[in-house]
User: Which sequence fits this backbone?
């Protein structure tokens, strides 16, 4: 999809983090599930298009993350949902952003990568077919994302990502360690 109001608002939010103490960002990330602290992060909104293979525009354009936070050994891709209560993740979006974060962090020599989901709530964050998934059902949510990504990209995904079969076999617990999540209400409480 294109850039909408949700993306513009997220960019404004991220840009405002540059003017707040790093303690605010660290508290937000801690509540989202990150252990440790960032010392001197670079924050950018409207992160642009990301492809697999990394930076190969002839490859598959996977997604347009809303932004990122980077530091020497850490990359955090940001995805914001929920300015409208009906807003949810696009088909295969979690799998796409996992692959993007993994590839970008490898290319930049970063040790850790994460995907931070900011949402109105963590219920019904994803729909595949007729089924809606809650964040608390991460195993099933992840499996549905992989299925939807493979369905939409087909053979081109296998050609662009030589270890795709290995990615599909990753345990949901291992993948889950790369995801952080927080609600807009939690952020408002930190700011208060």
Assistant:
């Amino acid at each position: 999809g294109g850039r909408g109001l949700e993306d513009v608002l997220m960019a404004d939010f991220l840009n405002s983090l540059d003017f707040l103490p790093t303690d605010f960002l660290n508290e937000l990330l801690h509540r989202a599930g990150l252990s440790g602290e960032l010392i001197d992060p670079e924050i950018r909104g409207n992160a642009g298009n990301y492809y697999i293979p990394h930076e190969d525009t002839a490859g598959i354009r996977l997604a347009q993350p809303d932004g990122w936070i980077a530091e020497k050994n850490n990359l955090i891709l940001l995805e914001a949902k929920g300015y409208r209560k009906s807003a949810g993740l696009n088909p295969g979006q979690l799998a796409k952003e996992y692959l993007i974060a993994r590839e970008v962090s490898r290319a930049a020599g970063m040790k850790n990568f994460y995907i931070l989901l900011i949402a109105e709530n963590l219920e019904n964050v994803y729909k595949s077919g007729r089924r809606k998934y809650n964040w608390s059902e991460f195993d099933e949510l992840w499996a549905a994302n992989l299925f939807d990504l493979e369905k939409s990209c087909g053979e081109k995904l296998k050609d662009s990502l030589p270890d795709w079969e290995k990615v599909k076999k990753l345990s949901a617990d291992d993948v889950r360690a790369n995801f952080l999540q927080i609600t807009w209400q939690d952020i408002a409480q930190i700011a208060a």
In short: The chain has eight helices and nine strands. The two ends are 33 Å apart (CA to CA). The chain has a mean pLDDT of 84.
